[in-house]
Design a protein that fits this description.
The chain is 26% helix and 29% strand. A hairpin with a 2-residue loop joins strand 17 and strand 18. The longest helix has 27 residues. It is globular, with a radius of gyration of 31 Å. It binds zinc ion. Zinc ion binds next to loops.
Length: 380
């Protein structure tokens, strides 16, 4: 008992001394600065007086500053997803009365999925079964086409083209809904004015990218007066206004256009003029389709407001990604994969790489039915 008591007494004395020492220390250095003696204990060389005792020593113990690599985002764009009569029935199973279009993209699926963001133009509507499924000239396709696009790895589906209103405003609105239900973002057609005003922005590896899309027209089908927002038409004033807004909300802007002359293998003056205007006003990359054949792309040097010259690109026509068209060159298309890199020092995003991957639509008969598969390369 006695031994235990003296042990407790000893402990109290030790604690009291410790508290006193701490108290003196805090009293002398209330601002948190460490006493020089303390530093000498940690850094014996300080005793010579060569070290500034006020410098932040925590910095010294860190390894050399690491230079972080610039983040990049890869975006893949393809041309028109057309849905002619032969294609509609290629995916039909009579036994189960169901549709499945996964065979269309199964060969190129990995390339699409590998991109951070993948986009395609849907040149048909998803107006529902009651509206009857038809190919050219007024397209309406089964919803299962949207499933196939989602499964292939696409993220953004451009819906502003000359076939947007093939089943009227009702069809255009239903198309947006069907895409949304599958987690796909529709671009270029909208359910309301508020939705149109909201710029589509996707983030990849810390890079914020804004997407805009416009079409030259809707095949003469008038846009309802009370639904002017439903499809984005090419209108310079509107585009410049959207570009300004998009730049204020994102690091880079990508524009998808539906324009040009059908079956022309070189871009027209009007196409180039519009593309140059868009690139000069903030977009980094323009993807485009509608001619149903490939048109060569073009790099452009643009002078920034600070005098810096930067490179931008227009892919004037990526051709058909999938279709049943058999006119010359309409069976070929491009997957255009481009890279946006964020220069961390300048806090600015640059287009650093553009790669064009050739594709073609293989058509063959199996079980008495025509089949369609997108394959790599030029048409053999
Ligand atoms: Zn078109």
């Amino acid at each position: 008992m006695k031994g235990q008591k003296s042990q407790t007494y000893g402990l109290i004395v030790v604690m009291a001394v410790f508290i006193m020492v701490c108290g003196i220390f805090i009293y002398n250095y209330p601002d948190g600065k460490v006493a020089p003696e303390f530093i000498r204990w940690r850094h014996p060389e300080a005793a010579s007086g060569t070290i500034d005792t006020n410098e932040d020593l925590s910095q010294e113990e860190l390894p050399e500053e690491e230079v972080l690599p610039n983040p990049t985002a890869t975006i893949l764009a393809v041309g028109d997803i057309m849905m002619h009569d032969g294609q509609i029935w290629a995916g039909y199973d009579e036994k189960t009365d169901t549709f499945d279009y996964s065979e269309f993209f199964h060969v190129v699926k990995d390339e699409i999925t590998a991109a951070d963001i993948a986009m395609a133009d849907l040149e048909t509507t998803l107006g529902g079964k009651e509206q009857k499924y038809t190919g050219y000239p007024m397209f309406n396709s089964p919803d299962e086409l949207a499933d196939a696009l989602k499964n292939a790895g696409f993220d953004i589906i451009v819906t502003s083209n000359n076939h947007s209103l093939d089943r009227g405003a009702k069809g255009a609105l239903r198309t947006i809904q069907v895409l949304k239900e599958r987690g796909l973002a529709s671009l270029g057609t909208y359910e309301s004015e508020e939705e149109r005003e909201q710029i589509l922005i996707k983030e990849a590896n810390g890079i914020k990218i804004a997407f805009l899309s416009y079409t030259y027209g809707t095949n003469g089908i008038p846009i309802p007066k009370d639904k002017q927002y439903i499809v984005n038409l090419i209108d310079e004033e509107l585009i410049l206004c959207d570009l300004k807004k998009a730049q204020s909300q994102a690091d880079a802007v990508v524009v998808y256009l539906h324009f040009g002359e059908e079956y022309q293998r070189t871009p027209s003056k009007a196409q180039r003029k519009l593309a140059h205007l868009i690139l000069k006003n903030g977009a980094s990359f323009i993807a485009a389709s509608h001619p149903h054949v490939i048109q060569p792309g073009e790099w452009m040097e643009v002078e920034e407001p600070n005098g810096e010259i930067i490179k931008k690109y227009t892919s004037y026509s990526m051709g058909n990604f999938i279709s049943a068209q058999r006119f010359p060159y309409t069976e070929e298309g491009l997957m255009v994969k481009f890279t946006l890199e964020k220069d961390l020092k300048k806090n600015k995003v640059y287009l650093t790489d553009v790669r064009e991957i050739d594709t073609w639509v293989d058509k063959f008969v199996r079980d008495g039915k025509m089949r369609y598969v997108v394959r790599y390369g030029k048409k053999p």
